[in-house]
Design goal:
The radius of gyration is 14 Å and the shape is globular. Helices cover about 35% and strands about 20% of the residues. It contains four helices and six strands, in the order βαββαβαββα. Helix 1 packs across helix 4. The chain is of the alpha/beta class. Strands 1, 2, 3, 4, 5 and 6 form a six-stranded parallel beta sheet that branches. Bound molecules: flavin mononucleotide. Flavin mononucleotide binds next to helix 1 and strand 4.
């Protein structure tokens, strides 16, 4: 059976989108269909009929905030109280340890919200630290390949 994956992206300067593109390229080689969506375009009701897993790729801004474009979706989802019991999801968060008190809070906030709404997390989230010199897209594809892909 063909596998599908929704990749929901929250980004400020495009790094998270680049990560999503690289994961999409890997998925193509494995015959997985992907659907990349920036969270700016999402509303809670879009989650009601989702039956493919969701990979959340979110960076962090301000003082541990989700990126500006994803704030409406985050806040609306938080106040919606809808059940996400039918959803499987994984999280790749982008952050920078220079902001040690709010490291990767963007991805962590989405993770906590999805858990609160009873979605089913697959694998452990990966939080990329931009200060350690590694490339987020490389780390992301390795993590996805080793830890997530088999669980889709
Ligand atoms: C103004 C600004 C504020 C940031 N605040 C945080 C933060 O609070 N915590 C964190 O872990 N990273 C923080 N970051 C780091 C970004 O999340 C990180 O560089 C990320 O890779 C950017 O991804 P993007 O291009 O997809 O937005 C901040 C970066 C900038 C420029």
């Amino acid at each position: 059976m063909t596998k599908n994956l929704n990749i929901y992206v929250a980004t400020m300067t495009g790094t998270a989108l680049m990560v999503a593109d690289e994961i999409e390229d890997f998925c193509k080689t494995e015959g997985i269909n992907t659907n990349i969506v920036e969270m700016d375009a999402l509303e809670p009701k879009n989650l009601e009929n989702i039956n493919a897993p969701i990979l959340i790729v979110s960076s962090t801004y301000g003082q541990g905030d989700v990126p500006d474009g994803s704030k409406n979706f985050y806040n609306n989802l938080k106040s919606s109280n809808i059940s996400l019991e039918h959803i499987k999801y994984a999280v790749f968060g982008l952050g920078d340890m220079t902001y040690k008190d709010t490291f990767a809070y963007g991805g962590k906030k989405f993770d906590h919200l999805f858990l609160e709404l009873k979605a089913n997390r697959i694998g452990e989230p990966f939080y990329h630290d931009a200060s350690d010199g590694s490339l987020p897209e490389e780390e992301a594809v390795n993590w996805f390949k080793e830890k997530i892909f088999e669980l889709l």
